[in-house]
Design goal:
- The chain is built from 14 helices and twelve strands.
- It has about 425 residues and is an alpha/beta fold.
- The strands form two sheets. A seven-stranded mixed sheet has the order 9-8-7-6-10-11-12.
- Strand 11 (about 315-320), helix 10 and strand 12 (about 340) form a beta-alpha-beta unit.
- The mean pLDDT is about 95.
- Bound molecules: nicotinamide-adenine-dinucleotide.
- Nicotinamide-adenine-dinucleotide binds near residues 222, 223, 227, 247 and 301.
Length: about 425
């Protein structure tokens, strides 16, 4: 049944609802509860007029969607992109509800977006856009209400502008109103590495279950960007052997192992890992996925593991750094083969979990050291992985781990709604 809400016809939203319905079916949730869950609690649309450097005014449209607050204040990033739609923002806010619930952090789900190509704006225009957007949503955000963070094409500098604008409006320094701020205004140096670190942490824990240790295990990483490079760095530090990496220009393989520090240097200096000097052979991104390795980390783009190649994938553990690298059909094939696919919603939650660490310490007025922050992330993600893994094995082992993760997340939100008397 349609409600007439403008986001309902959006294909991304329809996919998010399909995913919710699948989890609801496994849980045996009644239709009326699904109806409550599928709609955001609030979506605010705002107009952002920006005076351009050429003297003309350009009007941009932005949204903030607050999907569910049963477990705490809404939390989720803000993206700047020319193709952002209200439907996309609403779907992503629903996805954040499940991700935060699964991460065991005291947040609901939110997401924001502005339909703009930020590359076409000067730094001054970008600052005006950011301040005006945040001022326009200031009434519905706050440390205990809704806590934004960066997403596609937004960054710590933009978070610093948001923090400053909100603090000016409220007339106090509101450190906890956004996360992933620059360290001088309450952020953490380690925010940048936290997603990749988390991807490595859950792979390490899965390796302990299968083999007792991650030491000596071989690893292939697709995409040597922000997520992939730190996943490789930490897995190597714990004794795993990184035998293959790639980026958009192609991949490299060396059975004796690749030096991660050298890979960082080559990637930063030349723009691609393919220029790494000591390789046994160059490989394609498709070949990398099918290598005979113990652990595979897809950390580049979506839909790379499909029904076409799933059967040929030899890794026993796949830790999803990227969002959506495995299609639902491939997920089923890999589950049948006994591959542990640690789903994106669990494996790449290191960023939002680090945001929670930043926020909780902002609120206490004490700033953490890098070691303290990383050790907290390690404890939290290790705990989360085993909690989800055990519940999957105990109750939902007929399904891929991803289905179990969604079911666990939806169930947590539903139970909180029941306790609060909402349903
Ligand atoms: P990034 O831009 O820093 O890195 C992406 C890397 O992938 C680059 O090295 C690029 O060359 C490579 N790449 C691009 N197309 C490729 C292709 N077709 N085949 C192989 N490699 C290719 O991005 P990132 O921040 O590392 O994000 C990677 C993925 O992780 C994305 O799916 C993103 O949504 C997801 N993710 C990122 C974060 C985060 O905190 N950065 C958090 C959650 C999820």
């Amino acid at each position: 049944m349609t409600s007439g809400a403008p986001y309902e016809t959006d294909p991304t939203y329809q996919m998010a609802v399909k995913q919710l319905k699948e989890a609801a079916q496994i849980l045996g949730l009644p239709d009326d509860v699904v109806e409550v869950l599928r709609h955001p609690e609030r979506v605010l649309q705002v107009k952002i007029p920006v005076k351009l450097d050429n003297g003309k005014i350009a009007v941009f449209i932005g949204w903030r969607s607050q999907h569910n607050s049963a477990l705490g204040p809404y939390k989720g990033g803000i993206r700047y992109h020319p193709n952002v739609t209200m439907g996309e923002v609403v779907s992503l806010s629903m996805w954040m509800t499940w991700k935060n619930a699964l991460a065991g952090i005291p947040y609901g789900g939110g997401k924001g977006g502005v339909k703009v190509d930020p590359k076409k704006l000067s730094q001054r225009e970008l600052e005006e856009l950011s301040r005006k957007y945040f001022a326009a949503i200031a009434d519905i955000v706050g440390e205990d209400i809704d806590i934004p963070a960066p997403d596609v094409y937004t960054n710590p500098q933009i978070m610093a502008w948001y923090f400053d604008e909100y603090s000016k409006i409220k007339r106090y320094p509101a450190w906890g109103v956004v996360t992933a701020k620059p360290p001088l205004v309450g952020g953490l140096h380690v925010r940048e590495i936290s997603t990749g670190y988390g991807v490595a942490l859950v792979a390490r824990e899965a390796a302990k279950i299968l083999w007792g240790t991650v030491e000596g295990k071989t690893v292939a990483v697709q995409g040597f960007g922000n997520v992939g490079r730190y996943a490789a760095k930490y897995l190597a530090e714990w004794g795993a052997k990184i035998v293959a990496v790639s980026d958009s220009k192609g991949g490299i393989y060396n059975s004796k192992g690749l030096d991660v520090a050298k890979l960082f240097e080559v990637k930063d200096k030349t723009g691609s890992v393919v220029n790494y000097p000591d390789v046994e052979k160059k490989i394609s991104n498709e070949e990398l996925l099918e290598l005979d390795v113990d652990i595979l980390v897809p950390a580049a783009i979506e839909n790379v593991i499909t029904e076409k190649n799933a059967d040929r994938i030899k890794a026993k553990i796949i830790s999803e750094g990227a969002n959506g690298p495995t299609t639902p059909e491939a997920d089923k094939i890999l589950h049948k083969k006994g591959t542990i696919v640690i789903p994106d919603i669990l494996a790449n939650a290191g960023g939002v979990t680090m945001s929670w660490i930043e926020w909780s310490h902002n609120r206490m007025g004490c700033w953490l050291t890098e070691e303290e922050a990383l050790s907290r992330l390690d404890k939290k993600m290790t705990h989360n992985f085993h909690e989800v893994y055990n519940e999957w094995q105990k109750k939902y082992s007929d399904y891929p781990m991803r289905a179990a993760a969604y079911v666990i997340a939806v169930d947590r939100v539903v139970r909180a709604m029941k306790l609060r008397g909402w349903i």
